[in-house]
# Entry
Amino acid sequence: MSYTAHVLRRYLPILAFISILTMYVEMAVLPSIYRIEEEFGVSTSEVSWVLSAETLGGLALAPVIGKLADEYGRKRILMMILVIYTVSVLFTSISPNFTVLIVFRALQGIGLAINPIAYTILRERLPKEQLPMAQGVIASTFAIGGAVALPIGAFIAQYYDWQTVYWTALPLLIVATVAAYRLLPDSRGSVVKESIDLVGLIQLSLSFLIIGLSLTYAHQVGWTSPITITGITIGLVILGVFLRRSRSVLNPVISIEDFSNPNVAVPLLASFVSGFGLFLLFQALVYLFELPRPVGFGMDILSTGLTLAPISIIMLIVGPAFGSLAGRVGVKPILITAPLIAALGSLTLAVMVLDYSITVVDVMLVLVITLIGIGGMMVSRITLLMMSAPERRLATITGTNTTMRLMGNTLGPVFASSILDTYKQGVLVGMVSNLPILYMVPSRTAFYYIFISSAVTSIVTALMAVRIRETVRGVAEARISTVLRV
# Structure
């Protein structure tokens, strides 16, 4: 067996399994968002922090993890992450109230730094010809985790409760930790130890926390109220100070220097834009499926999970396919075309959602188009970044990539939920003394604006991709059959 086959057979499965588990934990609670809102008596905007707290935690920790992996070795830091992550999942499963839930969901954000480390381990061990395919497999674990998490998490939440969902992950996390310790190769850290810019890290996290909270309560105080405008302005000012300071500090959280290379800058910026649009889409779909008719489809948690699961399978298929295609036609054509496909799907959804006669099948058919485009964006971005980043800064830049994506992931659900809270309509739930009793829920207009916003983010990604220089074209095709053989 060749060394390459050994890497693909021994290391890739365990890295993929760990990534699937983190996606399972992240996504399993998604079908229960609407129930959590009702259970704790919080608003739609507030419950969005069940998703955003985890991504904000990842935003704060990803740059630190990236630098630590560069300095102390990828395996050592990966083991540390797995232990902390498992403990956070345990405490999330016994959360007695909404505040505790949000705190431990935020701590789970450390698990979102696992994928960048997986990418760099593969980069260290694989030749350039095989890298796009392996990266496609890891990128597709998002879809596999979703395909597993959505139906299983929905089933458990439907017949037990959403806290029990986390108990199902604990034994698997323990097995994954032991397997990683025994099977993954040791890697040397850098001889030169670099300090971590904690001040910059606090500035970046604080800016997005303030902007996120301003969006959360915008529907209550008004989108143009002094409170909302002041909050967003303060967040942007802190972000500006962070960027200005990053030019002068020795080891910044995000190096402005990295953005001078279009092949690094475009994937990083695209990670933020598409990350925003993707979580925007997920948040909206759960509410569209579970809200009472005629606004939603009146589905229960299990039906929602089963409906969303095939979408993840589609992304699982297109991920490796686009990774293989990149070796033949190059990344640039894919990174331009895939976002336009996603935009077409989102625009179609925006038009369709205003028609109250549409069915779940109609939505799913159009969503397939959107997800094909999103899958192409995910794989082509990370492949371009892996091919273009200097090896000595590889883990740090992939950590920055995760930071940019999590910045988008943090604001996406908050923005979507704030739109849902802003545009509402009454649904008749009964009559008392010949007077109608109305229950206020998000209107179809809210979903229209959300899908339009998702389309805009995809178009922006395509426009940015025009600037990149092709680096992957001409690399031998990394065929799917290679992975199947080994």
